[in-house]
Amino acid sequence: MSKVRVAIMASGEGSNARALILHERTKPECSFTIACIITNKRDAGVVQVAEHFGIPCFMIPFVKRDEKDIVSELSGILKMQNIEFICLAGFLKKIPGAITEVFKQKIINIHPSLLPAFGGHGMFGRNVFDAVLKAGVRVTGVTVHRVSEEYDEGAGIFREEISVDDDETVESLSRKTKEVEHRIYPEVLEAECARFGQKS
Ligand code: GRF
Fold first, then answer.
1. pTM of the prediction?
2. Which residue has the least CA distance to atom 7 on ligand 1?
């Protein structure tokens, strides 16, 4: 069975992108191959991750641009790279509807809370952990979900709980969350692509 060609879209450090690539590189029977990385930030850490692993990296600015220009540029890259599946890993811009429509069921995201709690516009990075601690909840977690036109609203695929300890800080919660993300995201993508690969 041929490997499903995946594009990672990311705006940040790229630790999840790295975990996905390492999974592919260390597991010969892996169902996917990371064909390219797409970012909206030239100085994002994920650009170095792409360089380190020799993966093509494309930069698409999202600010002060017409959505149709973004869609045309993004579609062009996805076509040129024969992308079959998109994996968002800390991509901070909304994915245009024209793209989510074409990639229906074939675009997923990972979020550092148990959605719908602590999701939506502005809920990323420290903001999420801050809100979790302020709310005083004892259990948070990670959610992998399909991507729709709205932030963090697509159907859930997988979630794992994380306990919030008495002495928890934003930093410790962020560390615990990343550990879970790096373990589960490659597994979820692996399962999604295995399923998708069988259909194509
Ligand atoms: C992760 O916590 C993920 O849940 C969220 O953005 C963060 C990306 O981190 N969507 P990194 O760039 O992969 O380190």
1. 0.95
2. 90
